[in-house]
Amino acid sequence: MKAIQFGAGNIGRGFIGAVLEQGGYHVVFADVNQVVIDRINLDKKYTVHVMDVECVDQIITNISGVNSTTPQIIEEIADSDTQLITTAVGVVILPRIAPSIAKGIVARMNAGIEKPLNIIACENAVRATSQLKEHVLALLNDEQKEYCLKHVGFIDCSVDRIVPPVRSENPIDVVVENYYEWNVEEDSFVGPVPHIKGMNLAKNLIAYIERKLFTLNTGHAITAYMGKMKGYATIDQAIADPVIYSTVKAAMQESGLGLIKKYGFDHDTHFAYIEKIIKRFKNPYLKDDVTRVGREPLRKLSASDRLIKPLLTAIEAEVEVKALYLGIGAALHYYNMEDPQSVELQSLIKDNGLKVAIEKLTGIAQTNPIASKIENAYSEIVTIVK
């Protein structure tokens, strides 16, 4: 059996591709980076360095590579042995790979293949696979859509593993933390549901998605933004700062109380989960750069992402909020000249004023008291990080 992993970057190799290979699949990595694809096909193996309290090396061997812009990717999708397609390309790239997937599905239809094919977009976004499905269906005619909906499953998921960009002697080796979660929506599979070690079959996926978004992503982002303001280079350095640590933990607890009210999570269990996440931030082996974690602040300040959505959920649950406001204030200060979104963010604030920028970024009206509290936090965080 075979799986195609779109994206041969660190997440593709260090997380999803590795789990699939260890689950018994031959993994075909599809990517535009010909250097990486050539090295995969030359070495026919790579090493996943699990760096944590206990360090372990995992050798991934049952692999091959294909350039995702060539006709060969269509042939791979059309192969009747192909059972799964997974992605780790970034949500903005999904529309670019949709044409290849659509052509592969049409090729399967024309070949009379009725074996199920299931697609899982493993992106750091809410219901990324549903987004990919819309892009694929838009490229099919009515007959092709009918075949697709009958024989192809589109499964939303939630993924969680820290995989920093660490250079090694071999460019396809990768460093990861020991912890990971891959939760997939069980009821969306077409045909028999695969049981893969490391892939958790979930019934209430949105609860898993928001638990991760409001905890790992929220805490990670605030650590990065406050860390950047204080001049730290890495997440482990930033979280070791008592001021940052206390603010991040409080923010995660505020968002956690919102989740507990919304989904009925057990209070003690969720707060223990928060402690586990903060412990991951402290991992000294990962050397995770604050600019990597903080990149694309416009997206991270949007209404549905890791800062504003937890804030609004906590407020709706009548949680007393302080640290989440400070985290948003830190995000609004984020500046990295190599990050186009960061440059755009600061230009937006400079040219329009803070309240106008807040409304444009978050959708929160200038007249809303929440906007005023964000504005106050923007000033207060400067004093706190001194």
What's the layout of helices and strands?
Blueprint: E1 2-6, H1 10-22, E2 26-31, H2 34-43, E3 46-50, E4 56-60, E5 63-67, H3 72-78, E6 82-87, H4 94-110, E7 117-121, H5 128-137, H6 142-151, E8 152-154, E9 157-160, E10 174-176, E11 181-185, E12 200-202, H7 205-230, H8 235-239, H9 242-263, H10 267-281, H11 290-294, H12 297-300, H13 308-316, H14 323-333, H15 340-352, H16 354-362, H17 369-384
Parallel strand pairs: 1-2, 1-6, 2-5, 3-10, 6-7, 7-8, 11-12
Antiparallel strand pairs: 3-4, 9-11
Quick overview of this protein structure:
This protein is an alpha/beta fold and 386 residues long.
What this model shows, in words?
By secondary structure, this protein is of the alpha/beta class. It has 2 domains: 2-203, NAD(P)-binding Rossmann-like Domain (Rossmann fold, 3-Layer(aba) Sandwich); 209-384, N-(1-d-carboxylethyl)-l-norvaline Dehydrogenase, domain 2, CATH 1.10.1040.10. Helix content is 52%, strand content 14%. It is built from 17 helices and 12 strands. The protein has helices spanning 10-22, 34-43, 72-78, 94-110, 128-137, 142-151, 205-230, 235-239, 242-263, 267-281, 290-294, 297-300, 308-316, 323-333, 340-352, 354-362, 369-384, and strands at 2-6, 26-31, 46-50, 56-60, 63-67, 82-87, 117-121, 152-154, 157-160, 174-176, 181-185, 200-202. The strands form 3 sheets. It has a 6-stranded parallel beta sheet with strand order 5-2-1-6-7-8, sandwiched between helices. The radius of gyration is 22 Å and the shape is globular. The mean pLDDT is 96.
